[in-house]
């Protein structure tokens, strides 16, 4: 493939008639004004016979709706988050009334260490879980426990969850874990013209660290553009690497959406005040590895953050960043969408496997979480998962597989099970604390989220709290772990 291969869907240019034609007449993609693409030998789409199907149409409908909801959703999000923080900082509703009467109300400040996002109100736990759980049986992770002997998987999931918060809150969380905070990144998206990508780095200790963790922020519940990115079918060819998801590459710092070589120059100084995620994180990791020469790097994230974590190695490979790649222990994501085609995944696996290092790539998926099933499995985009999937059919029962069931979310045979399990999650959440302790007691905001999730059960399963509960309470049968050992070379990074 030449560097100019790409396919870009422009939902803002789609009209009602276009959607009707797509769904009823399956128009050729090359005839659609809202699709822009090229082939290495010309300006037309790579496959002129490729037709828009119902998956393309459905995806565009979702994006059109999200475009309309962008501003209202942000306003709603601010109102909900401010209200939740107002209640929590003032001790609940009755206490708030008393404070209003006595003129002693605590007003939430968005940049303070006590201000939590909506995700933070779904699950406000910060204490690390020290009890050993099933993931410690995974062969590549046995040597990755942090200096204070915490549960490695628990630490990484909490790191992914805390990434949704502001810088001050993240610093407080890292200090609470008795670890060393390094840097918070608020990065520019060239195409969205906004600071749309956040991440942070911490070490298990400030001197001679064993572990460096990079955690990316996930999909903002009230940010329509984040959800549009998750479902987008647009792609860009990365040469012999294959096709990568264009939206995730843009979030990481891509500068040219039609040429990956121009989009990813190796040496880039950046525009002052507008740092790009990949370059900022890469340079920080280089500096850290000069100080912590024996440290291993783990990259993580939930939702959109998991997608960014998954594609980071591909750009490091593109730039031949050997020092960082040799220190990369692996990638561990939660509720991650698809990030590229089969060639993309196979190339990364082969490249890092040939390094001779015991690197891993695990995706944790909870039930019918809709996000790991997007972008939808469309023939024109060919997005596929790679690596090993740790799949939970409930909070307690897990198994390791190549890909989670109901991969495209539309199979009618799973519909009864989706709604049954959404109801089961709601009921279980009401009584779980009685069996497992107060640490598993859910907030009113989380209960309401589960009730809302009954309408779209896949959204309800995307709750980070379920992922943390799965890590803490989950069990995997012995034979499944054996499958992991025998397949680690084929499936791990």
Could you explain how this protein is built, in words?
The chain is of the alpha/beta class. Helices cover 42% and strands 15% of the residues. It has 18 helices and 14 strands. It has helices at residues 16-25, 54-89, 93-101, 118-122, 152-162, 167-176, 224-231, 246-252, 260-263, 277-291, 304-318, 322-327, 342-353, 415-436, 444-453, 457-460, 464-473, 478-491, and strands spanning 6-9, 35-38, 180-189, 194-203, 211-216, 235-237, 243-245, 296-302, 328-334, 340-341, 360-366, 383-384, 388-392, 398-401. The strands form three sheets. An eight-stranded mixed sheet has the order 3-4-5-8-9-11-13-14, with helices on both faces. A hairpin with a 7-residue loop joins strand 4 (194-203) and strand 5 (211-216). It is globular. The chain starts with 5 loop residues before the first strand and ends with a helix. Mean pLDDT is 87; it is low at 40-45 and 485-493.
Q: In a few lines, what is going on in this structure?
A:
The chain has 493 residues and is of the alpha/beta class. The chain has helices at 16-25, 54-89, 93-101, 118-122, 152-162, 167-176, 224-231, 246-252, 260-263, 277-291, 304-318, 322-327, 342-353, 415-436, 444-453, 457-460, 464-473, 478-491, and strands at 6-9, 35-38, 180-189, 194-203, 211-216, 235-237, 243-245, 296-302, 328-334, 340-341, 360-366, 383-384, 388-392, 398-401. It contains 18 helices and 14 strands.
